[in-house]
Design a protein that fits this description.
Layout: E1 5-10, H1 17-30, E2 33-37, E3 49-51, H2 56-59, E4 62-67, H3 69-78, E5 85-90, H4 105-113, E6 118-129, E7 132-136, E8 139-144, E9 151-157, E10 160-167, E11 169-173, H5 181-184, E12 197-202, E13 206-207, E14 212-214, E15 220-224, E16 231-235, E17 238-244, E18 248-262, H6 265-279, H7 285-289, H8 294-304
Parallel strand pairs: 1-2, 1-4, 2-3, 4-5, 5-18
Antiparallel strand pairs: 6-7, 6-18, 8-11, 8-16, 9-10, 9-15, 10-13, 11-12, 12-14, 15-18, 16-17
């Protein structure tokens, strides 16, 4: 592949054809090459080259994630051994990682090729899960199976035993992941500028009952106890083990494992601050609409009215 190459990472189920066509048209006009995983070949135009998933990041100058935060996390994991800038195109709902809306894509692609952007560095968790190596940019979680008892595990930090957990789920997260499962389990929101990892139990029944915030230099070791129920293991929300009955999870913090493209860091930060404030409002979308100024609410209502027949 000659010249500047964009790798497309597609949401697994959503219709991304409109955005892909937009990128393909732009690439054809500017003489740029597009690539996609072999598994997604049927979802893109014939002009897009198919590449083995394990080789996509290495063959490309940048990745374009089309979807929400989950798709973005997948793109970052794909490039973890050879980090490349990842541009997020927003097709999701809340979206804390993605920045670009589809109408803004042409200008974003021009800036990407011109290197007119900043890179937001992201850490990951390098995890040994019962002997298997996995990488998580948000979190790794041990989750109980409904009706099967509780997750019971011991905690060791740098080899020093600290106590045990008996809970519904046990989540180890990065600062980026602190807004996800860890937050839902009652964990703290951690600034992305902070280097740390946090261990949070969900619905603790006994043992350690609060979040534990650790230095990036410390390693976490969770060992399932013999009296633990079978647990599922999730990595960034993806199921990687369905019913583990023994073994351990060892977690290390790795700096600068991912590169997220930021075109307007200040605007992105302001938008995320608004999203975080909405997380604590127990309101439905229609209720939130009532909080808008009258003029803006009426404008939105008119925009959603069906056209006259």
């Amino acid at each position: 592949m000659a010249g500047y190459v964009f790798g497309l990472v597609l949401h697994p189920t959503r219709d991304v054809s409109e955005v892909v066509e937009m990128i393909a048209s732009w690439a054809a006009r500017h003489g740029k090459t597009l690539a996609v995983r072999v598994e997604d070949r049927h979802r893109v135009p014939s002009s897009v080259e198919a590449v083995a998933a394990a080789e996509l990041a290495a063959r490309c100058d940048a990745l374009i994630s089309i979807g929400g935060d989950g798709t973005m996390l997948g793109a970052l994991r794909m490039a973890v051994r050879d980090p490349k800038p990842v541009l997020g195109v927003h097709l999701g709902r809340v979206g804390f990682l993605v920045e670009v809306q589809p109408p803004d894509l042409p200008r974003a692609l021009e800036r990407l090729v011109a290197h007119d952007f900043t890179v937001e560095s992201h850490a990951c968790l390098a995890c040994d899960v019962c002997g298997d190596d996995v990488v998580a940019f948000n979190d790794i979680a041990l989750v109980r199976q409904p009706g099967a008892g509780f997750v019971t595990a011991t905690l060791a930090v740098d080899g020093q035993q600290y106590g045990y957990y008996r809970c519904d789920a046990l989540v180890v997260s990065t600062p980026t992941g602190s807004t996800a499962y860890s937050y839902a389990a009652g964990g703290p929101l951690i600034s992305p500028a902070t280097e740390a990892l946090v261990v949070t139990p969900s619905a603790p029944m006994a043992g350690i009952s609060r979040s534990v915030l650790l230095s990036p230099h410390e390693s976490v070791h969770l060992e399932l106890r013999p009296d633990s129920a079978p647990v599922a293991v999730e990595m960034d929300g993806l199921l990687i083990r369905e019913a583990a009955t023994g073994g351990s999870v060892h977690v290390r913090y790795v700096r600068d494992a991912g590169q997220v493209v930021r075109l307007d860091p200040r605007r992105y930060q302001e938008r995320n601050q608004l999203k975080l404030s909405l997380l604590d409002l127990p309101l439905l979308p229609d209720q939130l609409r009532e909080l808008l100024p009258d003029g803006l609410r009426e404008q939105l209502n008119r925009r959603e009215l069906p056209p006259p027949r």
